[in-house]
Design brief:
183 residues; alpha+beta; two-stranded parallel sheet; Peptide Deformylase
Length: 183
């Protein structure tokens, strides 16, 4: 089932999320619904707050990049209760966009490498290291679980320049090819 994506200005996007347990209601349908919602919106990652749930759950599928990089194209993951354990001091810059902030793309600095602990959809624990684009996407989605958005990471000048676009998103004055829930 395709769910509406909560856009900039919705309070749930600013909440620090809560861990979940294996008995979380309807988790076995929620995860496929998140993937379906993400695919429909042509995204590569989706965190639970983006569909209105303040829980520590995110999904990522980098299949759209398989032609450019087969390793990225094979990366599909569900992360439950993730915790970033380490971030490299080295940072890399890259352009980011967000399904919750339609029509805005900005350059953001992220750690080049991360180490993360998470549970998969079967509640099996993983501790893994990721770098470059995988690390970027994970950090972007992880920020949602911490109540942060990528626009928080742009320079103050860029943030000021984005103010009117963000206000339009809050007012529902933006068009999307997918279902949204405005503030």
């Amino acid at each position: 089932m395709i769910l509406p994506i909560y856009t900039y200005g919705n309070a749930v996007l600013r909440k620090v999320t809560e861990p979940i347990k294996a008995d979380y209601p309807n988790l076995n349908t929620l995860i496929p619904n998140m993937f379906e919602t993400m695919y429909h919106a042509e995204g590569v990652g989706l965190a639970a707050p983006q569909i209105g749930l303040p829980i520590r759950l995110l999904v990522i599928d980098l299949a759209p990049f398989k032609e450019d990089d087969p390793e990225l194209g094979a990366f599909k993951v569900v992360m439950i209760n993730p915790q970033i354990l380490e971030k490299s001091e080295e940072e890399i810059s890259g352009e980011e966009g967000c399904l919750s902030i339609p029509g805005i793309h900005e350059t953001v600095m992220r750690a080049a490498k991360i180490k993360i602990n998470y549970l998969d959809e079967n509640f099996v624990e993983h501790v893994e290291e990721f770098e470059t684009y995988k690390a970027r996407v994970i950090q972007h989605e992880y920020d949602h679980l911490e109540g942060h958005l990528f626009t928080d990471r742009v320079t103050p000048i860029r943030r000021q320049l984005l103010k009117s676009k963000l206000t339009n998103i809050v007012k529902g004055k933006t068009s999307c090819s997918y279902k949204v829930k405005s503030a």
